[in-house]
Amino acid sequence: MSASSLFGRLHLRHWYSSLGYLSLPRFYSQVPNRPAWEPQPCLTLDMKLEFEKLWKQHVDDFGLTKHENRQNTYILSMFPYPSGKLHMGHVRVYTISDTLARFYRMQGFNVLHPMGWDAFGLPAENAAIQNNEDPSTWTEKNINEMRFQMKQLGCSFDWDREFATCHPSYYKWTQYIFLQMYKAGLVYRKPSLVNWDPVDKTVLADEQIDEKGNSWRSGAKAEKILLTQWFVKSTKFSKNLLKELETLQKEDWADIINLQKSWIGEADGVAFDWKIEGLSSDLSIPVWTSKPKLVNRVEFIAVEQGSMLDVLQAHNSIKEYEYTTKDGETAKFKAFRLNVVACNPFSKEKVPVYVVDGVLPFPPGSDTYMGVPSESEVDCMFAKTVNLQCKLQFEQDTSAETLCLKAQEMGIGGYPVSSNLKDWLISRQRYWGTPIPIIHCSTCGAVPVPEDQLPVQLPPFPSNEGSVTKIASPLAQAKEWVNTKCPKCGGSASRETDTMDTFFDSSWYYVRFLDAFNEKKLVSFDEAKKYLPVNVYIGGKEHATLHLYYARIVSHFLHQLGIIPCPEPFKRLLVQGMVMGQSFQEEETGRYLTRDKVEIKDNLAVCRATGKPVISKWEKMSKSKHNGVDPIDAIKSFGVDTTRLLMLADAAPFSQRNWNPEGSKGVFSWQNNMYMLVSHFLSVRDSAKTGILKPNPSSLSFSEGEKEAYSLRNKHLSTITHNYRNTHQFMVAIKSMQQLTKQLKLLPPEVVAFSRQYELAIATLISTLAPMAPHFSSELWQGFLSAPGRLNIDNSDIKWDKPVLEQPWPTLDSKFQLPLAVIINHKEVCIIPIPFEQFRTLNGDHMIEIALQHEKVKKILDNKTVLHCKATSMTERAARVSMAVPGLKISEEDIKYSFTKKGRQEAAKKKNEKKKEMAEEQ
Questions:
Q1: pTM for the full model?
Q2: 884 within 8 A of 825, measured Cβ to Cβ
Q3: CATH code, 266-417
Q4: E strands present in 290-373
Q5: For the segment 385-442, what is each residue's pLDDT rounded down to a tens digit?
Q6: CATH hierarchy code of domain 664-806
């Protein structure tokens, strides 16, 4: 099967789109027909699994819902490589993204939540070689398997936008981006000393080599070889990339900002390309300097041992030199003058090149050094020691700005960059990747493929791949494909046989989701304007310096071309921590054991067979450590919703998550409590309907219970919404729901039967659970709807004719008071309660004005000058006004303890005393 036939079924989606079907609103499937809700004594696993089976189609059938006059939001999880099987990390990231997507739908947004496949790459090709099958066949099989598994998770992906990066209709536009970069002078080809993976037989970028010099994928020790490679001038974007980091939301991007700042480095210099003469082929090397204006004073170029020029010269005669330090001591360094010269790109003057070990201060991360003896004592000492004759006088220095502009025009660098940042190496010597759309002609040189001839499709997979020489691409064997005509002169020519790094494929996929089957454009600007930047991007921290860096480069470039409306691709970033499995390792032998071979005695693990000590620890899941968990097994054991809740509970998304099946007991217990709460609600309502229970609105227990239900609903809704929307701390939202479940259960029967606030509270509890556990909440909602005696008929928070997934997100009562805390010199001095209807309309200036007009604040300030004042607000939660007043001391009596441990304890004590008084009165 050829690559061009892969995913033929996707063309059906394009056909539907051409008929206009995909532009129509999408709706949930019809609510399933089911018998009347009959409460059972308790919830069982079989009941849960039956609920999920019953509601599955309803829960799954939903992607992007289009409504006029609604705000759009784009929730995106990093698309997976189709390895054929989901792991628990996938379960975590897709549960998080689906929870957010469902939350924002209930908030009234048009939500885009797509899914696709990062389908090119070495694993597919290696598997094809091992199993004697086409990579496209292997990839398609894995995609089908993983799509099926994803659908078991109840995720509401918009499958109508599905694509794979290995499909020609996608990589046509990957090639298009490459060609636009080529036209802009951002893509170039040159000989380079590269990292060669001897196992996977391909080049790796520096970013794909660990600190030990090993391949990021195979683990093999990388070799250094010289190859002519394709590069993207990513360093041109470094200054803007660094600057734009400051615009990103610090709370989400904090760790990533630090990582990328370290990776990009301070753009405190520039690099110029110097041509090397004296070799059999043309070669240039980048030379970085923090003082570009001195470039015309350069007397020599130095390179480190092991650098490209050193390897090319292959000398064995490096010489040791002695010199005298400032302190009068004797020191040594090694150097050797190469049989080449470096040509100054501006003055055209030729200077010698030395391999140097020691003495010269090479810039961090750079293996080249610009020697200027007239400006540097160290350089002068080096020149004298190696007997290099230097100039005494130079022409007046040209300004750095002039030199840099000239270099940019000449295409030899000149952009602000750090010394350690290198251009992006994108060549790979493999078959299963995007073909580079370049044709090599002996007359015309490198000629880009005309855009109307895109895509350049992969030929059939070479059957004799095993005979490929060490550094050749398998595509070189496809002679009929390789041999072609030059688009420029019509003469005989050959296609480029390297393919692109898969990071290039994934650097722009978030854009294509917006217009997945547009054959005329990469994306419609109108569609891009609706949804970019991505509102929340969810994925692993391991992609912080690679994928996110490359995606930002391509996004900046597409913005410069006017293809997309913004330079930065992602607004908020939700970095998901790794899911760890519990492993058991024999202390004596280091052998890993399966869980069934371990026994726990007095909290100590021992081997069942030998009784010897076993070390128990949490590690990355792997087959070799016997600590992996199959997501489908988890779903079969606990159900979909319990598995989802397990992933969200007990740990923040960005924290490491230890997978412990025992946690399912606590989640199941809560689900049972919710089921029993709804059952109790139905039972009490039935009693009220038959007259067994009669209303008494004047009783103290009813009025206090009504107030309690009101307070509980609004207080917990505030916490839940805040953690959905602002912090993404789903574990906190779950704890709040658990508390609300427990507290509603304690209210007296007359409140359950006749309180509008109780009815609203139980509806709020079920609907706020819906994004996390859509099947279970759908069933609970059906039970809630079946209760007689509806009280909130006119309340807009409950749509009695709609299932829970189509409910609006609950809102706080307009009179419910939210706290505005006033902080002076880091001390909280008062809390100003503000009704929600007013609170949500306040901006920062209004909040500061309210704080300054408060009597206690005016008294404390006593007309002193406020040096700095800042207001921050979290909608539906709380607000804060912070003031800095020099010389003002806050007395102990003026400090408000509302948010401290002592304050909470005092408030709880008063509340318990009030409840006790009420009980005594009854």
A1: 0.88
A2: yes
A3: 3.90.740.10
A4: 300-304, 319-324, 330-343, 350-357, 368-371
A5: 999 999 877 888 889 999 999 999 999 999 999 999 999 999 998 899 999 999 999 9
A6: 1.10.730.10
